[in-house]
Amino acid sequence: MRILSTAVLSCALVISHAAVADINEDLQNICTIVKNNDKGEIRKKLKKIKDEYRFRLGDVYDGVACDGKSLIRWAMENGANDVGAFMVKQMSKSDLSKPEADGLTIQQWAEANGHIGSEIGQELIARLN
């Protein structure tokens, strides 16, 4: 029985490691997609992640950084209004309200960096209210 438990645990670890490797591969070029404001491609990418891994954008958002910035901040900095507004709509209010690595929420960061007036910033305010 002990051998069987060890074998099952080992298989579970291999499967979960493989899933993490696969999702990392699927997320690999997401920064380029956001920077290029390619809404069609971001939709495809997020649909694949949802269908294959059962993750939503909010589940993977904290683990993705583009030049040290979160995806929505990256979209704001690059004027990727279509993609940024789309991502805001896809995330829950609680995910959008959480402080990021620097302790600021997306809204606080956008206000401090002059992005709150952008299309993405306005979509963010509308979503949070």
From TrEMBL:
InterPro entries the record matches: DUF3718 (IPR022193)
Pfam annotation, one family: DUF3718
Signal sequence segment: 1-21
Keywords: Signal
Domain of life, per lineage: Bacteria
Protein name (record): DUF3718 domain-containing protein
Species for this entry: Pseudobowmanella zhangzhouensis
